[in-house]
Specification:
It is a multi-pass membrane protein. The chain is an all-alpha fold and 183 residues long. 68% of the residues lie in helices and 2% in strands. Helix 1 packs antiparallel against helix 5 and helix 4 packs antiparallel against helix 5.
């Protein structure tokens, strides 16, 4: 085999060993999935900061209530949804399976559950808005229930994809640990 700086084996240019230089598929998949989860985490942090800003402006009365409504109750527990994302990011450097599993479980509790509760909490107001055209809460001139339903839909998609990619990542990590045990 040819060394990096030394002489090559006679009769070869070193290209016959390229098949040994491929990265195993589960390592490639792990890197790709980590990248996707990071991107989704950045989107989640952006949504989280928007909700935090809306809650801060509502509570501190920086703007009149006809500009920014007081937050709905589901928004308070949703603030804890940043914890599962951080746990997921902490699991990446050393492929820590336990952190990733904790991230997935706590995502269901702190991310998905408040979104489901929020959809149910806002449903009567959405019904009233679309049946009678009456809205009592506003965010910069838009119906607060419409804006918050949009946030719920986007957040549900972000968390759904995070959980899906986390499960795939967990599977790829188990594949690599099973192959190590076989050797």
């Amino acid at each position: 085999m040819a060394s990096r700086g030394g002489p090559r084996a006679t009769g070869t240019d070193g290209s016959d060993y390229q098949h040994r230089e491929r990265v195993a598929s589960h390592y490639q998949m792990s890197a790709a999935l980590k990248s996707e989860i990071r991107k989704l985490t950045y989107v989640h942090v952006g949504l989280w900061l928007l909700l935090l800003a809306q809650m801060g402006v509502g509570h501190l009365k920086l703007l009149p209530h006809d500009q920014v409504a007081m937050p709905y109750q589901w928004e308070y527990p949703y603030l804890l949804s940043i914890l599962p994302s951080l746990l997921g990011l902490l699991s990446f450097p050393r492929n820590n399976i336990s952190y990733l599993v904790l991230s997935m479980i706590s995502a269901g509790l702190f991310s998905v559950a408040p979104l489901i509760y929020g959809a149910m909490e806002m449903f009567p107001m959405a019904q009233q808005l679309y049946r009678h055209g009456k809205a009592y809460r506003f965010i910069f001139g838009f119906s607060a229930v419409s804006v918050m339903y949009l946030v719920v839909v986007v957040a549900a998609q972000v968390h759904g994809w995070q959980l899906y990619y986390s499960k795939k990542l967990l599977d790829s990590w188990f594949t690599s640990t099973q192959e190590k045990k076989k050797k």
